[in-house]
Amino acid sequence: MITSKSLLGTFLVVLAALAIGTALWYREDALPDSDGARERTGGAAAAGPSAGRTATADGAPDDTARSEREQYQQAYRLIEAAARKYGVDPALAHAIALQGSFYNPQKVSSEGAIGLMQVRPGVAAGYGLAVKNQLFTPEINADIGLQHLRALLAHHDLPGALFAYTTGRKP
Question: In the predicted model, is pLDDT for residue 41 greater than 80?
Fold first, then answer.
């Protein structure tokens, strides 16, 4: 017999799998360049003096695209480090960040979840965060979000932990 709880669990696992696949595509070393081509970092430098840059209509370099890319890469590295610190699979951590905020540290959900990892203020208070606005700081958000996810994974299976995380439940 199919229950609503088992259906929800299946849905969450499928959603996580899709988000993990997307997160792996968006890995830092395989980001789409401004022209749609895939640039590889970590190896030889990109060819040409303007590789990885976009230009405005008058041909001037567009620093907005570069700063967005750098912001994404910083968020990616923060989540990677926090995931390793708390023993959470980095792909799962990236899937949550991608699905919840698309790596936007200023994102606020309709339910009040904040930042990269979409941490709810009530959950953050349980980890000693007294000022809600600190959740907009990417380092703090990633740290609390992944500490909370680790605690949930210790008490639940993956679908249960994801459900608890997205609903703001405590372990």
Answer: no
